[in-house]
Amino acid sequence: MNINIVIADDHPAILSGISYELSAIRTLSIVGKAINSTGILDVLNRTDCDVLITDYVMPGGTAGD
């Protein structure tokens, strides 16, 4: 059974690092990434996920922090 994960962070290095580390775990599937709140909502509207890993403060999105 795979766990579907969406990752959101406005810092590319953090987003990339979390993605890299989690991709090594065979039971986890990264199904989406976002860099702001608008992106999170877009990904969640088109993709089913079990877990959302997100930064608490991400400027630039239409939905706010």
| Number of helices in the DSSP assignment | 2
* Overall 3D form: flat
List unreliable stretches of 5+ residues: none
Proportion of strand residues: 25-35%
Radius of gyration: 11 Å
Helical coverage, percent range: 25-40%
Task: Write a concise keyword list for the protein shown above.
65 residues; alpha/beta; three-stranded parallel beta sheet; 26% strand
Describe this structure in words.
The protein is an alpha/beta fold. Helices cover 34% and strands 26% of the residues. It is built from two helices and three strands. The protein has helices at 12-23, 37-46, and strands spanning 3-8, 28-34, 51-54. Strands 2-1-3 form a three-stranded parallel sheet. Strand 1 (3-8), helix 1 (12-23) and strand 2 form a beta-alpha-beta unit. The chain is flat and about 35 Å long. The relative contact order is 0.31. The model has no long low-confidence stretch (mean pLDDT 92).
